Amino acid sequence: MELSIDAGDVRLPGTLTLPAGPPRAGVVLLHGAGYGHRSYFLYEHLARVLPPLGIAVLRYDRRPVAAGDVPLAVQAADAAAAVARLRAEIGDRPVGLWGWSQGAWAALAAATSTVPEAAFLVLLSASGVTPARQMRYGTAEQLRRHGYGPEPLADLLALRTTVEEYLRGRLPRDRAQAEVDRYADQPWFPLAYVRRHLPEPGAWTDMDHDPAPTMAAVTCPVLLYYGETDEWVPVEESLAAWRDTGTAATVCRLAGCDHAATPLGGTTIAEISPTYSATLRDWLTDRLARSR
Q: Which of 38, 107, 131, 183 gets the highest tally of CB atoms within 10 A of its CB?
């Protein structure tokens, strides 16, 4: 079913996949940073595997922005609008949130603010550190996987640290831009995920967002997935953050998988880990049985 979501200043196109019979529950999907279209393979996979369990799946296009990311608070508000739209179709059924990568931060923010009635959270590659820290980790890992050694890694850290301080308003533009210019011709520069020409200070709204308070405030059941070779999220640090909050969560480690629950950067439904799919089915079936 094609529909639209009234998110206040914009209408977001969406697709609702319903079970064959009466819905037992519903789930709203929140996006990875660079994957805001509802046709992305991780989202389509859920629309295939969850409706046979009686779970309606609402996926929608993330709101457009001129540059950069949609702020997490805005994503959480859009998630609430999507939940309201889903409820208009399935009635007073339990509704949960699924979030991947950046969408996991947004799903946590929604579950503890705009959608406090969330029945469950399923989070794939949920970073337990700030976005700035996560990007330092992830870009360093990109260099390592491309064969770069200690000197380029040190240069990358210097570059990203300088740009972060500029974006926080602590360094003048000319000094930060000079650092970008210094490294722009290096072969590893495209892996640094730094703009060639710097935006205005404050452009990265959520760079210092600490997910720990939202992790600690979650009251619904949580299922966490981490690929054992995740190239973007510091897995052990993130799991330690979850433990430190004291929030109970079911953790599933995906052997041989990277950031998207697939091996070696796979981007097709056929490559999605069978463990991911089976655990998801079993966990949600158990949660719904308990909620009766």
A: 107
Catalogue all structural domains in the chain, each as residue range(s) with its CATH number. Answer: 2-130+210-290 (3.40.50.1820), 131-192 (no CATH)
| pTM of the complete model | 0.95
Q: Are strands 11-17 and 2-6 parallel, antiparallel or unpaired?
A: antiparallel
Name the DSSP class of 28. Answer: E
Alpha helices in 30-98 (DSSP H): 41-49, 72-90
Instruction: Express each pLDDT in 50-83 by its tens digit.
Output: 999 999 999 999 998 876 789 999 999 999 999 9
**Collapsing DSSP states into helix, strand and coil, what is residue 11?**
strand
**Which residue has tokens 């859009």?**
78
Long-range contacts of 107-111 (CB under 8 A, 24+ apart): 107/30, 107/79, 108/211, 108/214, 108/215, 108/218, 109/72, 109/73, 109/75, 109/76, 109/214, 110/30, 110/75, 110/76, 110/79, 110/80, 111/214, 111/218, 111/220
Please give the single-letter amino acid code of residue 56: A
pLDDT per residue over 212-255, tens digit each?
999 999 999 999 999 999 999 999 999 999 999 998 899 999 99
